[in-house]
Amino acid sequence: MAREPSTFGNDSRPFGEAVLWRPEANGRVVCDLCAHRCRILPGRSGVCRVRANRNGRLVSLVRDRLIAGHVDPIEKKPLFHFLPGTLSYSIATAGCNFRCRFCQNFTLSQAVRDGGEVPGEPVAPARVVEAALRSGCATLAYTYTEPTIFFETAEEVGLLARQRGLKNVFVTNGFLTPEAVERARAFLDAANVDLKGFDDGRYRKVCGASLKGVLTGLESLVRAGVWVEVTTLVVPGMNDSDGELRAVARYVADLGRHVPWHISRYHPDYLMDSGGPTPLATLERAWELGREAGLDHVYLGNVPGHPSEHTTCPKCGTIVLERLGFHAVPRALAGGRCAACGERIHGVFAA
Ligand code: SF4
Question: What top-level class would CATH report for the domain 68-308?
Answer without folding.
Answer: alpha beta
